[in-house]
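Sequence in, structure out. Go.
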Amino acid sequence: PAPAPHEVGGSAAMRPALALAWRCCGLSLGIVWSCLFCDYVLLTMAIPIFPLIHASDFMTGLLFAAKAMCQIVCAPMFGGFIDRHVKGMILLGLVMEVFTLGIFAATFSYGYWVVARGLSGVASAAIISAGFAHLQRAFQEPEERSMAMGLAATGIIAGVCFGPVWGGTLYEVHPALPFLLLAAVELALLGTVALGLSSNGMSASEKQADQVSMVGMLRCGDVARVLGALALANAAIANLESTTARYFMKTFGFSVGQVSVF
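Output:
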């Protein structure tokens, strides 16, 4: 039977978007997607693991928050470096994440884990900012740029979904295994970035045209509203991140693997 008219119209409307997404797929997008995925796997794999360190509720919350605090401080400071060294900042972020994963795998000390968590926030600030800056320069057409950034953001979503399962399941096999395996993946990604990602720094004219002060950006109403919405949305997620695992472990006696599913 012939398809209904609305089905034909819907399929026709989807074709341009699918064609645009296909044009955006390539090495640059794949590398940035993988960097964002690994960064958020590192972020969320800790959810079922950190409560096992047997610290107080406040200290556990501080351990979770160390990454975000360092990322908030460092992200604005990295702006000038990213303008000149996009590829180098991505490489720096990956090297720092591999180092932090080594700390997580080697020790079960609260103090060392706070330091490692904070360093991962510095690394995340470099990777996310430089990754999206690279896409902004790799895709000159506004429609392609928007599509590429939207597709890259799915790496964040995938990392959030996959990270807790990765951490909880592999931790039950061996406490160091989730950290060592992710470090191996990031080392392979480090080589791919070094060999496959182009260096596309801004020209002098582009730097002069695009240089905007942080105060000037915050004075923009649209920017302030977006920041406020993001802060509220992430506050709710962060609240659950630091409390849900401990609650299920204490109340129902869930294992690390069981908590990771939730």
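Check: The two ends are 44 Å apart (CA to CA). The chain has a mean pLDDT of 85.
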